[in-house]
Design brief:
594 residues; alpha+beta; Penicillin-binding protein 2a (Domain 2); 5-stranded mixed beta sheet; 5-stranded antiparallel beta sheet; 16 strands; 36% helix; 18% strand; elongated
Length: 594
């Protein structure tokens, strides 16, 4: 900017020439300069005020808009937080195939103490013992009056308990937010779900981690924030699971059994619709694992997945299926059943004397050990082992549970000819009820190998063929006759054609050295409807005794079969299977074929 001089020489000379005072010109220039400076300062001030007013209006509008959004949103309780907390507590829900909740989350609180902030430690200890009777009063008082600066009192408490502690009025008793795992159905499907507990813990948060079952198997997926809004969908059907567990519990009581297990599986997809093991537990209050004694006595033991048993005559089905598949026999082939069958110092006998010869079909229908062993001799050890391996009976099932990985079938040390014969009728090889269900599903679906799963995948199909369709169909015909004519007659359910096989195996002594004389594992493995199988059911009872008659009866036909029949009667309508009842013929009319 060019400043105007205060004493311009030209004007000064002119003023002196006219006799005027030159100082007047200087004063006038100073006045004008000051007026210009005031104008510029006023303009700057006005522009700043306008800018500040504009910014204030923008801020006012932003705050007002945010207040309007909050006023129209749903109210949410504030959550306590702390800077730097890296513990992720949120965990995805678990639902059944119909979307019904099996496991979800519940907001609660933990209770901890800071003894140095306590006013009345003794009074606080007295009051806490009244609210939580399981607490040790002397230990609490010792902790409150000692040198400790922090201690957990309860990892999780109910809202009622929180209010009761709050009413104590002790400033040293504090609460931390918690998100605990809730199983709204209690004991239902307890062994499948497993349970969850707290991992890393802090005052303001705690991570929930799976400790067993699918909770542990899918722990990483359930804790993934990217999938937290997507529930884990299991293949279980909550209604069917409830019916199976209810009937199984009643059957276990009536048959005086030590334990029981049931597996219901789709034959086409291998999806487990129900999996029950008794005794069971409540995953909301999961008991501690046993530190001594037999693990099978613990309610945490999953008999359907972890229990490895000699499953008796249910294995005869596999020997017959392989013999038919290899073309060694057909349903009408005559089999030598004269006995006993002697091999070295061992003798194989039948439960009854069935005569010198039976057809292959009758060997299964009447459940002949000798006839099955004769067929196994034709098959041979190497081919038998390869076939059972193809059915998945020699390795873990791969079910999506941590317990399934350790359920490795117990095989003979040397697969001799004697082993081949005894394994053919279910002794000398121990597998789980889940193994048995998957193998029977393979036969029921026409010979395609089934991989059991707990995930709901409607379009999943078996891929590998384990046997010919013709052999599988012939075996299913035999299994239907086992129910209609043979040892499983009590499995007949009006309206639902059932096919299946019984198995009664002597129970080995726990400390080794032979078998018990009066303890058995009773099993029924079946499929329904027999003409177009959709589901396989396996029921196993540990040490059952049926006592309604004059003498105690332990065979599967008297124990496991009636329980399985009642399960089918209950669950078939839930599964959408319509009963097929033959209409009665009108009086005086005779039906003839063309």
């Amino acid at each position: 900017m060019i400043r105007t001089p205060l004493r311009p020489l030209a004007r000064i000379l002119q003023a002196r020439a006219r006799g005027e005072n030159p100082d007047v010109i200087e004063r006038e220039n100073i006045r004008r300069r000051h007026e210009e400076m005031r104008d510029r300062a006023r303009q700057r001030a006005e522009s700043r005020l306008l800018t500040l007013g504009f910014l204030f209006c923008c801020g006012f509008l932003a705050i007002g808009g945010r207040m309007g959004v909050l006023a129209n949103s749903e109210p949410v309780e504030p959550r306590a937080g702390a800077a730097g907390v890296q513990i992720l507590a949120q965990r995805a829900d678990i639902v059944d195939r119909e979307g019904r909740i099996l496991a979800t989350n519940f907001e609660t609180h933990s209770l901890y103490a800071q003894p140095r902030q306590m006013v009345d430690p003794e009074g606080a200890a007295d009051a806490l013992v009244q609210i939580f009777p399981d607490l040790d009063h002397e230990r609490l008082l010792r902790d409150f009056t000692g040198k400790r600066t922090f201690l957990w009192i309860k990892r999780k408490i109910s809202p009622e308990q929180k209010q009761a502690v709050h009413d104590i009025g002790e400033p040293g008793l504090l609460f931390g937010p918690r998100e605990m795992r809730l199983y709204p159905n209690g004991r239902l499907a307890a062994h499948v779900l497993g349970g969850a507990g707290f991992g890393r813990e802090g005052v303001h948060a705690a991570e929930v981690v799976g400790v067993a079952g699918v909770e542990k198997y899918f722990d990483e997926r359930l804790r993934d924030p990217a999938q937290g809004h997507e529930p884990l969908v299991l293949s279980l059907d909550l209604s069917v699971q409830a019916a199976v567990e209810r009937v199984l519990a009643g059957g276990m009581t009536l048959m005086n059994a030590r334990g029981a297990a049931a597996v219901l599986m789709e034959v086409q997809t291998g999806e487990v619709v129900a999996l029950a093991s008794l005794p069971d537990f409540d995953p909301n209050d999961r008991p501690l694992p046993p530190v001594e004694g037999n693990a099978a006595d613990s309610p945490l033991f999953n008999r359907g997945v972890q229990g490895l048993y000699e499953l008796g005559s249910t294995f005869k089905t596999f020997a017959m299926a392989q013999a038919l598949d290899l073309g060694l026999v057909n349903p009408d082939t005559q089999i030598d059943t004269s006995g006993p069958l002697v091999w070295g110092k061992f003798r194989i006998r039948d439960f009854h004397n069935y005569g010198p010869r039976l057809t292959a079909s009758q060997v299964i229908i009447k459940s002949s050990n000798i006839g099955t062993a004769r067929i196994a001799q034709r098959i041979g050890a190497e081919r038998q082992r390869e076939f059972l391996d193809r059915l998945g009976l020699l390795s873990p099932t791969g079910l999506e549970m941590v317990e399934a990985a350790g359920a490795n079938p117990l095989l003979p040390g040397k697969w001799s000819e004697l082993s081949t014969m005894t394994i053919s009728y279910g002794h000398g090889l121990s597998a789980s009820p889940l193994h048995l269900a998957a193998a029977y599903a393979t036969i029921a679906n026409g010979g395609l190998k089934v991989q059991p799963t707990l995930l709901h995948q409607p379009h999943r199909q078996p891929a590998e063929r384990a046997m010919s369709q013709e052999a599988a169909a012939a075996v299913m015909t035999m299994l239907r006759k086992v129910v209609s004519e043979g040892t499983a007659s009590m499995a007949e359910v009006p309206g639902y054609a059932v096919a299946g096989k019984t198995g009664t195996a002597d129970k080995p002594r726990e400390n080794g050295g032979g078998y018990y004389d009066d303890k058995v594992i009773a099993t029924f493995a079946g499929a329904f409807p027999a003409h177009a199988p959709k589901y396989v059911l396996v029921v196993t009872l540990d040490e059952p005794v049926e006592t309604s008659g004059d003498e105690p009866r332990r065979t599967a036909g008297w124990t496991a079969v009636p329980v399985a029949a009642e399960i089918i009667r209950r669950v078939a309508p839930i599964l959408g299977l319509r009963p097929e009842i033959e209409p009665a013929l009108p009086a005086g009319i005779t039906l003839t074929s063309n």
